[in-house]
Amino acid sequence: MTKLKVVQIGAGNFGQIWLDYVQQVEEVELVAVADVMESNLEEARQRLQGSGVGFYLDPVEAMRASGADIALLVTPPHTHLDLTVAAVASGLHVLMEKPIAGSLADAVKIAEFAKTANRRIMVNQNYRWKPENEAIRAAVSAGVVGPIEQVEWRFARNHRSVNFATGWRSQFGDIFLREMGIHHIDLMRHWLGTSPVSVYAENANPTWSWIPGGGTANALLRFDGGISVSYAGSWVNRGQDTSWTGDVRLIGSLGAIELTDGVPSIVWEDERREQLPVEPMKYTELAYSLYELTQAIREAREPVTNASDNLLSWLTICAAAESDRLGAAVRIDTVGASFQIYNQKGSSN
Q: How many Å apart are CA 233 and CA 215, to the nearest integer?
């Protein structure tokens, strides 16, 4: 099997992590790395010594000259639109880091561009690709506890160990929602097979928080089909941390599907607990995202987390941020990729 060639655009902190994952995927070959900062490029050179990979300070030149098939964008979200257009102009498919864009307007433009690009354009949502999370998706899909009608989601971690709240991230006033909440909202959609139709959200920042703009968020969401979700998340936790997915209960008439400390179980109505079988995966997380794109290319289909699909996750996050800003519930229009504020009687303005 001929390997698909990858040019990675962006070699900063998370870009260095991606370099290791790209090399795990047997279906691809890393042929070039580009970054506008020489220091990042030098770190990549040291990491990839003897690999024969090309290095570029100009991302567009790297796309044109490297002979790649796929552009992997590990760059700030406000660069994604221009880099995606440039990649497609060079004949490349695109896998970009989340979030899809820095704004809802740019995300809509990317999704619309993808429809006519004749290339696969995908957003990495690596939380979907964990064995325990796939076990939960399978259980929900099979209806083992009946249709899910209620979800309780608690995420709590002390994220001080990572210096992430700088640079472009610090410009997000609602950094927790946009950087962490996007993972959980996307995973909710993946598990439930549907999307939110309304959200009420509030950011908060405890006195001990070191995160600018809000280290915690709470939200009430209503999904299509009447599923209600209560979500609470924190990056400034005190006490025991949850897993990165969080502790979750998906409740149906026969019992609940639970994820606690990363272990998926069914708790039946009579309180019997039964651990869900977890199947091994060829790749997980970041590596699986890249693998999924290679399979979509070879099978001439859309990748699971394509731009249009991911727009719905980002739309929900943008609606939640707007709800917090205005102190009002927000109706989400998934068809028009927009949202409206509810008035006090529950109808939209």
A: 8
Q: How far apart are CA 36 and CA 50, in angstroms?
A: 22
Tell me the H-state helices in 193-270: none
In DSSP notation, 170-193 reads: GG-TTHHIIIIIHHHHHHHHHHHT
Alpha-carbon gap, residue 101 to 105, rounded angstroms: 8
| pTM of this structure | 0.94
Q: How far is CA 337 from CA 76, 175, 316, 334, 348, in A?
A: 22, 21, 9, 5, 15
Question: How many residues appear in the chain?
Answer: 349
| Coil/strand/helix, residue 33 | strand
219: Cβ–Cβ under 8 A, 6 or more apart, which residues?
A: 181, 199, 200, 201, 202, 229, 230, 231, 320, 323
Could you read off the pLDDT of 295-339 as tens digits, one per residue? 999 999 999 999 999 999 999 999 999 999 999 999 999 988 888
d(CA 202, CA 130): 29
pLDDT digits (tens, 9 = 90+) for 203-256: 998 999 888 777 899 999 999 999 999 999 999 999 999 999 999 999 999 999
- Concatenating the DSSP letter of every residue in 322-338 gives HHHHHTS-EEEETTTTE
Distance CA 9, CA 44 (A): 11
Report how far residue 150's alpha carbon sits from residue 253's, in angstroms, rounded to the nearest whole number: 10
Task: Kindly state the tokens that stand for 87.
Answer: 């990649």
